[in-house]
Amino acid sequence: MSAVRIGPYTLPNGLILAPMAGVTDQPFRQLCKRLGAGLVVSEMVTSDMSLWNTRKSRMRMIHGGDPEPRSVQIAGGDAQMLADAARANVELGAQIIDINMGCPAKKVCNKAAGSALLKDEDLVSEILHAVVAAVDVPVTLKIRTGWDRSNKNGLTVAKIAEQAGITALAVHGRTRADLYTGEAEYDTIAAIKQAVSIPVFANGDIDSAEKARYVLQATGADGLLIGRAAQGRPWIFREIEHFLRTGDTLPAPELFEVEHILLEHLAALHAFYGDVMGVRIARKHVGWYLATLPGAREFRAQFNRLDETEAQCANVREFFAERYKNLVTGDGEGVAA
């Protein structure tokens, strides 16, 4: 895969960590960037700046130490508020503004934001023109293929985006009504790629190096957005990058490396959020990392009752020590999925 440009920025590769609320915080962004992602995007930030004073919103903002170029995703349904939010984020250090018109969550769509905006093409145009005019950094857009199967207007919205000055477009190959179920429709992404001249990134169900190559070939996309498949597998970026570059499959990480990455991730979460919140947020990540390993379910049940940083780290070390012992005695799988 050749390098991809977004405005003045040339990405080392076209593999992008998709923004996910509650997941793509600073510790996870830094980890994915180190493990091969060409670009990482912040969690979705509301365009309602009156809500920015909450601890939750502050944690979602750009922070010192974030990998560059720093991309922030904003969401909302009011053109002026989105323009103001974009400007404020740039002042805080954002180097790319990403607009969310792809999130299918009810609490987002009920506020006429996210993929709900796809219903109103005039409003889409108004929002995109307002945000592009408000900032002097590249503005990118994330959409779905349409509202539902009988209202697939992704192609029209893509053309509106290009005319409005959007620099790059990410397309999740499902409609709003599909949520995250069913097969992703790569043919629609291919049609959108053919119809516009700006970079197009394909998103949806990319969970392996082989699938990544298939989706690139099927869509002609310039790059890929990887979301849920990176949860507990941040090394998926280096696996895909290596496979696309060489045609060879990178071996799965050894058990000791998975332990090292997980403990590093835990330390970063605890440092970033503080003990109480860090311990709570660590639980879901640990569950994702260990999901495919034997004994993981029983381990999670006890791990989720722990409420101290040190206890969490010690518990993870014990879990891996048990796996190493089983490897030596031959009682179970030892390599991460």
TrEMBL record:
Reaction catalysis annotation: a 5,6-dihydrouridine in tRNA + NAD(+) = a uridine in tRNA + NADH + H(+); a 5,6-dihydrouridine in tRNA + NADP(+) = a uridine in tRNA + NADPH + H(+)
UniProtKB keywords: Flavoprotein, FMN, NADP, Nucleotide-binding, Oxidoreductase, RNA-binding, tRNA processing, tRNA-binding
PANTHER family membership: TRNA-DIHYDROURIDINE(47) SYNTHASE [NAD(P)(+)]-LIKE
Family per record: Belongs to the Dus family. DusB subfamily. Belongs to the dus family.
GO MF term list: flavin adenine dinucleotide binding; FMN binding; tRNA binding; tRNA dihydrouridine synthase activity
Official protein name in the record: tRNA-dihydrouridine synthase B
Binding locations of FMN: P19, M20, A21, Q73, K142, H172, N203, G204, D205, G227, R228
Job of this protein: Catalyzes the synthesis of 5,6-dihydrouridine (D), a modified base found in the D-loop of most tRNAs, via the reduction of the C5-C6 double bond in target uridines.
Active site, renumbered: C103
Matching InterPro entries: Aldolase_TIM, DUS-like_FMN-bd, DUS_fam, DusB, DusB-like, tRNA-dHydroUridine_Synthase_C, tRNA_hU_synthase_CS
Residue ranges occupied by any DUS-like FMN-binding domain in the UniProt entry: 16-320
E.C. numbers: 1.3.1.-
CDD domains recorded: DUS_like_FMN
Cofactor(s) annotated in UniProt: FMN
Keyword Ribosomal protein: no
